[in-house]
Amino acid sequence: MSDHTTNSEKIFKKSCTIIPGGVNSPVRAFGSVGGTPFIAARGEGAWIYDVDDNRYADYVMSWGPLLLGHTHPSVLEAVKKAADSGTSFGVPTDAERELAELVAERMPWIQKLRLVSSGTEACMTAARLARGATGRDLIVKFDGGYHGHSDMFLVKAGSGLATGGLPASGGIPESVTSKTISIPYNDIEAVRNLFSERGSEIAAVIVEPVAANMGVVPPAENFLQILRGLTKKHNAILIFDEVITGFRLSGAGAAGFFKVLPDLVCLGKILGGGLPIGGVGGREEIMNHLSPMGAVYQAGTLSGNPLSTAAGIAMLRNLNNLTVYEYLNRYVDKLLGQLVPLFTSSNCEVKINQIESLFTIFFTENDVTDFESAKNCDMEKYARFHKAMLNAGVFLPPSGFEAWFVSLSHTEEHIQKTVDAVTAFLDSES
Predict the structure, then answer these.
(1) Has 269 been annotated as catalytic?
(2) pLDDT tens, residue by residue, 253-309
């Protein structure tokens, strides 16, 4: 037991006796990088502190939604004010309408929005809605794409499943996953062939417009445009899973960035500035199939929770200035501009996939363009990298199949700390 993580290790050991694996989401167990996870105590800006009062430069940022950083004053004030009036009502609030309008202002292709409680629920609802609107059964996804843990999507999924080495999940009947087809990401020919053979059966194609659960993998040239064309031609629905890219890739998400407009968009925790929330939105004629207007059922007592909507409104108002994205992109460019020469001079083979402020460092000499090439990266080396960086006070995603996230709170101090930690790691590897 390390002296500087004594309390974390004691708490985690106790947690393992009452919580499966000691965690409430598998990747938190550090299974693919080894060691014991630290126990978070508080966050401040782009720093996260553990219960032993160790401070880490945070590149996880609650898996993306903390664009403003931890404990941003405007978000905290909004949540506290909302809590003073009540934490849950189970009836509509005006904040739900206001949040939906703020989303539609930034993404006008979202003509109607249904709030839910998570990104998983958003994607599950979108697939059900697509099936209900088209009268078809087949859902097409891409290998390594992770759209939450609902049964239909746990087919060749990335992220936590890839981290755990599981091809799928127990507890799911084959009859459920038989209606989901998974094909390689960025494989335009495979998409065309599938639509040629089974286009009339396909209810929807769901895609991360920038894959981020196999590590960051940008779409190939014209990949999204071809998906849009084929789905229109065959009267199928195109769903963008923007749980990662929504309001991060740009103020209008990936759809606005690539200028490819889907029929439905799934959003997650970023809608609540990190609080539990999700949403599915899109074209009015499709959204009107949802109950109580249509026959596609979806419900949830905590959908549109007043604390989450208050945080989401506060966060989106902070994103009105376009310099937000200039700052995020400039930070990443400067960080990588200092890291790349370090890897090069140490003869350490890496491929860095970057698009705007989303990026992943892969330990490989080959291009990473899909799930197969991501799986061929040196994950043992990433585990050593993660451990060394953590010991140096830099918290990276505890899986090589994840994106790195930055915030408006990241500064030159975080860059220098990261550069120093990478330098020490490369020295130890030489």
Answers:
(1) yes
(2) 999 999 999 999 999 999 999 999 999 999 999 999 999 999 999 999 999 999 999
Catalytic residue status for 3: no
Domains and CATH numbers, the chain: 3-67+322-429 (3.90.1150.10), 73-318 (3.40.640.10)
pLDDT band at 149 (very low <50, low <70, confident <90, very high): confident
Identify the active-site residue in 146, 185, 325, 331: 146
Q: Which residues contact 267 (CB under 8 A, 6 or more apart)?
A: 103, 119, 122, 242, 243, 246, 247, 278, 279, 280, 281
Please confirm, yes or no, whether 59 is among the known catalytic residues.
Answer: no
pTM comes to 0.94
Q: Whose structure tokens read 């609650």?
A: 62
Residue 420 CA to residue 425 CA, distance in Å, equals 9
- Which position among 52, 143, 241, 370 bears the catalytic label? 241
Cβ partners under 8 Å of residue 257, min gap 6: 245, 249, 250, 356
At residue 209, what are phi and psi to the nearest 5 degrees?
A: -60, -30
Q: Which of 59, 141, 156, 269 is catalytic?
A: 269
